[in-house]
Design goal:
By secondary structure, the chain is an all-beta fold. The protein contains no helices and 3 strands. The protein has a 3-stranded antiparallel sheet with strand order 2-1-3, with no helix packed on it.
Length: 76
Amino acid sequence: MKLVKGCVESEIEIGGKWYKRLKNPIHEDVDPNERCHDCGAEPGHYHHLDCAMERCPRCGGQLFSCTCKGKFVRAI
């Protein structure tokens, strides 16, 4: 996964509605070249599927364990 900047799928389906996935955030206090420690996505890019660090675009919780149960992803 560290051979690419991040995942290409930009949307996730939750409860019959498509949501824009949240990117690995860019923080002022973090090295801009530091990748996600779980999936390797660069800051400003989408986390790879099933990454424990990705946030849910619907509820803001941890996508991996939230009750929104996102199912499918697509690249737009």
